[in-house]
Amino acid sequence: MPLLSTRDETKRAPQQTRDGWIEAALAVLVEQGVEAVQITQLAKRLDVTRGSFYWHFASREELLDALIAEWRARNSDVMLNALAESDSLQQGILDLFAVWVDHTRFDPELDQAVRDWARRSEPVRESVAQEDTNRVSAIAAFYSRHGFAKTEAFIRARIIYFTQVSYYALGIQEPMTDRMSYLEAYYRCFTGQEIDKGVAAAFGARLIRAEEDVP
Description:
The chain is mainly α.
């Protein structure tokens, strides 16, 4: 039986969607690292031919670029949108906290996988550095909108953001009940102000219920 050319294989390949390839590649990136994101292995994972890949991507490098774009869309945009939609300092800080603890919105494992990849790739390192700058700038702009001077807004933004990134990097695990017991102190440290106790209690209770509902 004659071998199929890549072009013929592509025409006859069972078609997986572009998003399907990206999702599979993201899973492998998180589970095994970027070196394991290989076309043949992904095709086996998806139970399709390599030709299906070339229906959507010109090369592995194009897929890797798509992974960075997807990481940026998932883990940066959700933060920026939360801050942009808030109408008070208290709401914005709580909305940011809510994003960070809801892993259906912000994916800390993906964030750490991309940071690990950045240690091996200068272009990815530059992308990560730029995203960190963008995230800090957005938080600083939020602080500025609510009356903080420029330098103080920038420093507070760095403190709150770097604290959260370190929380993920260190792999800290603690029950949501413990984490929410620190909410008033965290808010005081991050803003220099007191949070409304009723609002804090309601917010904490909501997140604790959400964690308990996760199967």
